[in-house]
Amino acid sequence: MSVAAGSKAKSDDEWRAVLSPTQFKILREKGTEPAGTGKYDRFKEEGVYTCAACNTPLYKSTTKFASGCGWPAFFDAIPGAVSRHEDRSWGMTRTEITCTACGGHLGHVFKGEGYSTPTDERHCVNSVSLTFTDKNGKTK
Ligand SMILES: [Zn+2]
Predict the structure, then answer these.
(1) EC (predicted)?
(2) CATH of domain 12-134
(3) What does 8-56 look like in DSSP terms, one character per residue?
(4) Which of 16, 28, 107, 123 lies 20 to 30 Å from 83 when distance is taken between CA atoms?
């Protein structure tokens, strides 16, 4: 494990007990859901996206934007909630993003793509890594 995890870290066996096989593959083994298949890709309701593994709030719906990339896209995270790591897999250098609290893999962040957002960053996040909660506390 090269990724430093925070206070909500668990062993692989502990994660297997609480996550579905798909969640384990993406959050713990850094998998990627197929483009356009995630339930939050085109989702537009107001609320908060929390980590699907440890329930820490990661993104607000006010920072979500329609990137057209096939995954939920955010231009900023809740301060401190998301950690960045250099990822050199697949012959590319990318910036991986993880949940600071549990170390769960979220996706990657891309910068300078020209989207008209306040940060010009795109946090490209797997829907599987997130749980949405609306203003009334209802998860969707
Ligand atoms: Zn987490």
Answers:
(1) 1.8.4.12
(2) 2.170.150.20
(3) T---HHHHHHHS-HHHIIIIIT---PPTT--TTTT---SEEEEETTT--
(4) 16
* 51 flagged as catalytic: no
Extents of the domains making up the chain: 12-134
How far is the centre of ligand 1, averaged over its atoms, from the C-alpha of 21 (Å)?
Answer: 16
Identity of the amino acid at 91: G
Are 58 and 106 contacting, i.e. CB atoms less than 8 angstroms apart? Answer: yes
Question: Could you read off the pLDDT of 52-81 as tens digits, one per residue?
Answer: 999 999 999 999 999 999 999 999 999 999
Q: Tell me the residue length of the chain.
A: 140
What is the 50 CA–ligand 1 centroid distance (Å)?
A: 8
Q: Model-level pTM?
A: 0.93
User: What are the per-10-residue average pLDDT scores of the chain (140 residues)?
Assistant: 73 97 98 97 97 98 96 98 95 96 97 95 98 96
Residue of 51, 99, 102, 124 with catalytic role: 124
DSSP-based three-state secondary structure for 128: helix
